[in-house]
Amino acid sequence: MKINIIGAGVAGLSAGCYLQMNGFETEIFERHTTFGGLCTSWQRGGYTFESGLQWLLGSGRSNPFYQLWSELIDMDSIRFVHHDVRMEIEVTDNTDIFGDKVFHLYTNLEQLERYLLSIAPEDEASIKKLVHTMRRMQSYEIPPKIRVVPQLLPWYRKTGFIRYLPLLFFLHRVKRETNFTFAEKLKNPFLKEAFRLFFDGDELPLLILTMPLAFSDLKGTGYPIGGSVGFTGHIEQKYLELGGKIRYRAEVEKIVVKNNQATGLLLKTGEVIQSDITISAADWNFTLFNALEGKYVNRTILELRSHEKLKVYYSVFMVSLGVAAGFANKPHFLRFPLADTLISPDGSQYTRMEAHINNYDPTLAPEGKTAISISFYTKNANYWINLRLADYEKYLVEKQDFSRSIIDLADAKFGGIKEHIEVIDVATPATFHRYTNNSKGSVQGWLPGKNIIAQSPVKIELPGLKDFYLAGHWTIPGGGLPVAIKSARDVSQIICHRKKVPFRIRPHPP
Ligand SMILES: Cc1cc2nc3c(=O)[nH]c(=O)nc-3n(C[C@H](O)[C@H](O)[C@H](O)COP(=O)(O)OP(=O)(O)OC[C@H]3O[C@@H](n4cnc5c(N)ncnc54)[C@H](O)[C@@H]3O)c2cc1C
Questions:
Q1: CATH for the stretch 2-40+55-77+226-310+448-498
Q2: Given pLDDT bands bounded at 50, 70 and 90, which one contains residue 167?
Q3: pLDDT digits 0-9 by tens, 407-444
Q4: Domain with CATH 3.50.50.60 in the chain
Q5: CA-CA to 5 of 20 to 30 Å: which in 26, 99, 303, 327?
Q6: Does the CB atom of residue 224 touch ligand 1 within 6 A?
Q7: Which distant-in-sequence residues (6+ apart) come within 8 Å of 396 by Cβ?
Q8: Is the pLDDT of residue 371 over 80?
Q9: Closest approach atom of ligand 1 to CA 484
Q10: What is the pLDDT of residue 99?
Q11: 429: which residues sit within 8 A by CB, 6+ positions away?
């Protein structure tokens, strides 16, 4: 049985691995020249610049996703960095805490609690409750297999599902708290501002912060030395070892449908490749409205398309710098205020900046040198995407001017950057869109809604279409790598179940 997969990102490669393990013949079609999709790195002048892997959920044995990654990768062969401080946030408030204005988000819960209490003893009750919530999260078994179970095993709903009820009740209780509502409860102005700034001034469910922190405390959210390409390279290698085939520079134009059954792919070159089953691990909007011409939709899908149900995750304007200097004692991830509002050509206004100083991975820069990246999230990615198409010269000028202002600001903040720059690489939202085809250059699919534990409105099958499935970061709001692997595994399990093939994992050779 032949299965065609669109996209060699983490989701497409993972689906390929799981299906090859279970005896299916798969082939991946990737429009780019290499694997990884958004989870990639690129080399310029001796430096490696990173896009999509600051932290991996499941980097340590304590986290259930470790088991999933281990099914595809020999996790012991990767060295993970587990930072003591997840990020540092410089507040704008004049309150001076121990001589500095920087809030340190410690990953060790005991240390974090001590630190928060030392800053704001007046907020003891809220702080203790916050830390207690994170400890409670650690005590539940968060099942990576929960989504697929009800579809496969009807009896499970009555028996096994009960195991997870305490977790669901718990999440139900805490799901409505946002960083803003929590900040409201605090008396200490420094802490209040730090919490308001966690998501760069946006209001998002606090669970997006507390859940990873709970896992970080257990060393479950590390950064793999070697970065994105090193990591995804392991999955590509596994796929090829399992007998999978990848065709690069193979852009899919249409999904061929006969009698409401997906029967193959039409490539941009005009070639048609037949299959029994098709999986799209590519952009949701492209798949449904271009490749399938909007023929398999329902009301929910149309509401998703018009962004009534969910908003698309941000895109990024990212300036990566290769700097011939050490930066050993600088924070690896700092968000700080700008003296003046920075206005992007796309209309976004920024009062803060985010810098990643990759001084913890020696593989990214020659000895004594550092790869630094500065990112600005934007909701107006289409400005860059459309400008690049409409007026390439103007696009280049605006990209260069904006990045110059950013470099000036970074230099003013850290010092020692401008005179030591060896390489400058700028990725705009148009770059992310061009290389990965993600709508609006989204870096993680959909933004989570306010109710973060609500069932995903995105279904992995489409109404009226047989032998077709979706996988990848668009299938569960919030996206990211855990969603990529989990959706791929779910789809593979469902296909096995339907084809009466017992789902099995082929262990790594010793
Ligand atoms: C700056 C940045 C930081 C991030 N940080 C983290 C992090 O720290 N932790 C985390 O978990 N996640 C992070 N992410 C998100 C994570 O990288 C993505 O959510 C994940 O890689 C998505 O994988 P995917 O396979 O679902 O989709 P994609 O990576 O988008 O892969 C889709 C693939 O399909 C291909 N494709 C598309 N259309 C076609 C077509 N028509 N024909 C053929 N091929 C096609 C694309 O070229 C691409 O290779 C980050 C992302 C970015 C950009």
A1: 3.50.50.60
A2: confident
A3: 999 999 999 899 999 999 999 999 999 999 999 999 99
A4: 2-40+55-77+226-310+448-498
A5: 303
A6: no
A7: none
A8: yes
A9: 26
A10: 57
A11: 315, 316, 317, 346, 378, 381, 382, 383, 384, 385, 440, 441
